[in-house]
Structures are given as C-alpha cells and as structure tokens.
Amino acid sequence: KSANPQWREQFDFHYFSDRKDILDIEVWRKDNKKHEELLGTCHVDITALPAKQTNCLELPLERHPGSLLMLIAVAPCTGVSISDLCVCPLGDPSERQQISQRYCIKNSFRDIKDIGFLQVKVLKAVDLMAADFSGKSDPFCVLELGNDMLQTHTVYKNLNPEWNKVFTFPIKDIHDVLEVTVFDEDGDKPPDFLGKVAIPLLSV
C-alpha cells in the first residue's frame, strides 16, 4: 500500500569473466497471492560503472512512471571462487597452514567479520529425474549460501552428471544454510526443478 516503497535490501552477484554484463531489474505489484502486475523495468550496464566505489543511481522505469534509487558497487570478488577439482584451493599444504594461522585462537578478534569460509566440492549426481521427452535431462547445480549464489556448468543429456567443481564461499553468518539445487536447463524457458538439499552450517 505504498507508492514510495523503501526496501533497503542488499544483494551480492558474482561474475568471473570480462564479458559485458547487464543487470535487469523488474518492479512488480502484488494484489493478492494470484494477481501480479509489472510496474516497470530498467537495466544497468555493469561494465560502464566505475569500479571500487559505490555508485548512486536513479533509474527511470521504462514505459512506466516512477524510478528506482539504487546503490551499486562493483568490486573484485573476495573469498568467492569456482575452480576445478584438480586445482582445489585447500589442496595446497602451505595454503592450509596459512588458513590455520589466520583462524587460530590468538587471531580471533583481529577481524570480527571474518568468520571463516566454506569450501564445497560438487562431484556428481546419480539417478536424476528425466525432464526431457528423450528420457534424459540437462542438469546443472546451483549453490546458495546467504545471498551468495554460484552454479556449475550444464551437463547435457545425462541423468548421472559429473561436475567435479570446487566452490568457495565467505561465511557471513554461522547460522546460514547451504542450499544445493539441481535444475534441468530448458533453453530460453525457466529451468525445471530436479531436486534440492539443505545443509545447515552448524551441522558441518
């Protein structure tokens, strides 16, 4: 019931290449559980923004009245990575020693926000549901921790895909839950859900 809503939400997005990236934003109005109406869209060319600073943008909605006020900061990814299994970051003994030193008891209060990090090896899936008429699926895996999200590549025409990727996340809240979801890629259509597991960090 507001024409001037304030959300004050923060979202982190990660990309690891030099390709051109456009941030697409949609504003929706919801009357009830069933009825939704698009109030407008806008787009931000991330590559055109100055790096390592917070950019305050007022973005007019296309073909609709109103505008969005946003703060967007483009910064190098720190503590977040995707790597192959053969170059697992924790596989290096010297790096493990540095990490042990970084999180030893005497350094507990050096950086209060640095709780630690989570490294996940996504090896494979077995006996997935067939989502295509051919009796196969095109599965990929999405990992979410807090509002950090990373995903594997797609393995096409396979019900037993092997990804063999290593994902590293910074931990911002020890009470967060790691959610791992498998989807079937479906061209330009939204992906089909194939299954999900949730792992509380406190259980690790």
UniProtKB/TrEMBL annotation:
- What's the domain of life for this entry? Eukaryota
Topological type in the membrane: Multi-pass membrane protein
Taking the first listed entry, what is the main subcellular location of this protein, grouped into a coarse class? membrane
The reply on keyword Metal-binding is: yes
Domain named C2: which ranges? Answer: 1-59, 93-204
Q: Which UniProt keywords apply?
A: Calcium, Membrane, Metal-binding, Repeat, Transmembrane, Transmembrane helix
Q: Which PANTHER family does the entry mention?
A: C2 DOMAIN-CONTAINING PROTEIN, MULTIPLE C2 AND TRANSMEMBRANE DOMAIN-CONTAINING PROTEIN 2
GO CC annotations on file: synaptic vesicle membrane
Where found? Answer: Membrane
Name-wise, this protein is MCTP2 protein
